[in-house]
Amino acid sequence: MKCEVKKAEGNVSTVMQFVLLGFSDLSHLQGFLSGVFSIIYIIVIIGNSLIIILIRLDPALQTPMYFFLANFSLSEISYVTVTLPRMLVNLWTQDRSISVLECATQMCFFLMLGATECFLLAVMAYDRYVAICNPLHYPLVMNQKMCVQLAVGSWIIGIPVQIGQTATVFSLHFCNCNQINHFFCDISPIIKLACGDTSAHEMSVYAVTMLFAAVPLMLILASYSKIISAILKLPTASGQAKAFSTCSSHLLVVVLFFGSATITYLRPKSYHSAGMDKLLSLFYTILTPMLNPMIYSLRNKDVIAALRKLLLRK
C-alpha cells in the first residue's frame, strides 16, 4: 500500500490519514484472528463486568480492596475497548485506514487509561500495605473519603499530561509514510513516521513513561517490601499463608502488566522490532485484561463465594 500524503505550504508533505497495518502480513489468518480476538473481547467484557456486579451486590465485598478492584475492572474494560473494537473492524472489513483525528483520540485515551491502570495498581498495593502492616489503623486510614479520593485521583492524574503529549506528537510532520506498523495508534510507531530529528520527542516519551509507569511500580515494590517483611514476622505458617493469599492475585497482575509494558517502552531502541512490539502490546493490552478476572476469581475465596450466592439466588 502506498503512502498517502498531501502537499502543504512550504513544500512540506502532510499525512491526512494513517493506515494501521496490524496483522496484514498474516493474510491467510485474518478470519481466524478476528474470531479469536472477538472471543477475547467478549471474555474481557463479561469477566470484568461480573467482578463489578459481584462487588456491587455482595455486602461481604464492600471493602476498600474490592472497591479498588471494581475500579480496576472498569479501567480494564475501557482500556481494551479503546483498541480492540477498531482492530476487529479492520480485520472484518480489511479497511485499515484511520483519520489523523481518530488516531490521535485513540492514542490519547489509550495513554490516559494506561496511566490510570498503573496508579490503580499502586493504590491497591498501598491498600494491602495498610491492611497487613497497620491493621489497627486500617479502618481509619482507608475510610470511604480516602478511597474515593485515591480512585478519582488515579482516573484523572494522567489526563493533562497525556493530552499534552498527544498534541505534541501530532504536531509533528509525518512526511515519510502513513503506514503504522501496529494494530493501534501507539506513540512509538507514530513518532517513527515523523520527519527530521525526533530524539527530543523520544526522550519525552521515556520521561512520561518513567512518571506514569516507573513511579507507580516503585511505590508497589516499596509497599510489597514492607508487606513481605511484616508477613515473615507472623508467628504461624497459617497466618503467613493467609496474608500472602490476600496479595498473591494483585502481585501476579502487577508482574503481567508492568513486565510486558516496561519491556515495550523502556528497552533500548536498538532492541525494538515491529513484530516484538506487537506481541508485547497484545500481552498487556488484551491478554492481561482477559486473565485478570480469572486470576482474581479463581484465587479469591470471597469472590468465589459471592459468585456462588449470586448463582444460587438465580
Structure description:
A hairpin with a 5-residue loop joins strand 1 and strand 2. This protein has 314 residues and is mainly alpha-helical. It is built from eleven helices and five strands, in the order E-E-E-H-H-E-H-H-H-H-E-H-H-H-H-H. Helices cover 72% and strands 5% of the residues. The chain has helices spanning 30-57, 64-93, 100-133, 138-141, 144-156, 159-169, 187-191, 199-232, 237-266, 274-298, 301-313, and strands at 5-7, 13-15, 17-20, 97-99, 179-180. Mean pLDDT is 85; it is low at 4-13. Helix 2 crosses helix 10, helix 3 (100-133) packs antiparallel against helix 5 and helix 6 runs antiparallel to helix 8 (199-232). It has one domain (18-312): Up-down Bundle (Rhopdopsin 7-helix transmembrane proteins), CATH 1.20.1070.10. Keywords: Cell membrane, G-protein coupled receptor, Membrane, Olfaction, Receptor, Sensory transduction, Transducer, Transmembrane, Transmembrane helix.
Topology:
Elements lengths: L4 E3 L5 E3 L1 E4 L9 H28 L6 H30 L3 E3 H34 L4 H4 L2 H13 L2 H11 L9 E2 L6 H5 L7 H34 L4 H30 L7 H25 L2 H13 L1
Parallel strand pairs: 3-5
Antiparallel strand pairs: 1-2, 3-4
Helix pairs in contact: 1-2, 1-10, 2-3, 2-10, 3-5, 3-6, 3-8, 3-9, 6-8, 8-9, 9-10
